[in-house]
Amino acid sequence: MKVLLFFGLVAVALAEVTRFEGEKVFRLKPVLDEHVTAIKELAKSIEVDFWSPDSAELLTIDIDVDIHVPAMYLDMVYTILQQSGMEYEILIEDLQAAIEGQADNKPTPRAHSYTKYNSWDKIQSWIASISSSNSALISKQVIGNTYEGRPMTVLKLGKRSSSTKPAIFMDCGIHAREWISPAFCQWFVKEALSTYGRDSQMTSLLNQMDVFVLPVFNIDGYDFTHKSNRMWRKTRSRKSGSSCIGADPNRNFNAGWCTLGASSNPCSDTFCGYSPESEIEVKNVANFIRRNKSIIKAYITIHSYSQLLLFPYSYTYDLAADHSELLKVAQGASAALRSLYGTRYTSGPGAATIYPAAGGSDDWAYDLGVKYSYTFELRDTGRYGFLLPESQIKPTCEETMLAVKYIAAYVQKNL
Ligand code: ARG
Ligand code: ZN
């Protein structure tokens, strides 16, 4: 028995796959200050994984709180819920079962698929093959390596031209566990290539502009969610002095860095990093955008979940100088998205619409001078959260295409 246990532990240590049997995701509905205090206290005493908002720092009254609770703390959570009289729902009864339910039942194809969540290895070979087989419309460049040494490749989509073209920059996968996001960047590239010459808007867009696509921003984190811990969010950087790994790339940009809605605790999921751009992935992207600042007219970053279309600012409640135009375009894009399957999005500036959170890529790009700067939070609103089933990849990407194309068309018209 002891021997078995020993080998069991060795096996677990070698594979190091985190499992989530019996763990639950709750939606708490704080309507009193006492409720907020109770959740904050809870977060201090046990390890709760915040799904929405992103951390305890961001809690306020009247916004729903989605938290993932390990099995050993369930009794404690139920007691606190009872004592405080707070309303709640259980979104996910068993997280491990939900993780396993995310993939559709078709046997896993060995190849890359647009309707599955592809591993980094598959995405990497997809990047190589799609760019070599469409050389008239696509080129690639490595903008640097990740902390663990993986190449960050930006795809440039657009008809070749002798003069420099204005461009749109889009990234996916800033946060590792938001798997629908990289799926969208892959979908976007496929759609752009297959509708060029057939769809008049795509044709005109790629004739006049280039679209830079970074399919996975936080590659190390994404790979880690596939191999070790499905719920990982941050980068995978290490620094002596802390045993906690990684920083939140969307708190690490130099925009009101670490002032609000971010944590200076390296163990927090919203750790802002040791300095702005301390994360090499952030530095690589920021350098690329700075270098191409004169041509980049729009910045689009894809996250999940909550069904939101956000724009600056998030590091302050002040309205952006271009607030009314940004809002008008966001509302148009949301309406376009909704026209396909009725999916409702809320749009507005980050701070007022969800919560203030400094150090985000959208605010940074905007302050650099990229006026049309948008953060998408894709499906859903919490039924599956980060574990959106693969059966929803296609409809989610189709509707999101309409919103992204709406923004692109507007930018193009207003060059
Ligand atoms: N859920 C995203 C995050 O917290 C929202 C980003 C909105 N923009 C921002 N700069 N905070 O990272
Ligand atoms: Zn995110």
From TrEMBL:
Look up keyword tRNA processing and say if it applies. no
Enumerate the UniProt keywords alphabetically.
Carboxypeptidase, Disulfide bond, Hydrolase, Metal-binding, Metalloprotease, Protease, Signal, Zinc
Active-site residues from the entry: 377
What EC number(s) does the entry state? 3.4.17.2
GO CC terms for this protein?
extracellular space
Catalytic activity, as annotated? Preferential release of a C-terminal lysine or arginine amino acid
Is-annotated flag, keyword Coiled coil?
Answer: no
**What is any one GO biological process for this UniProt entry?**
proteolysis
SMART domains annotated for this entry? Zn_pept (SM00631)
Q: Which InterPro entries match?
A: CARBOXYPEPT_ZN_1, CARBOXYPEPT_ZN_2, M14A-like_propep, M14A_act_pep, Peptidase_M14
Which cofactor(s) are needed, names only?
Zn(2+)
Q: According to its UniProt record, where is this protein located?
A: Zymogen granule lumen
Q: Indicate the principal place this protein occupies in or around the cell.
A: other
Which family would the database say this protein is a member of? Belongs to the peptidase M14 family.
Q: What is this protein called?
A: Carboxypeptidase B
Q: Which organism is the protein's source?
A: Collichthys lucidus
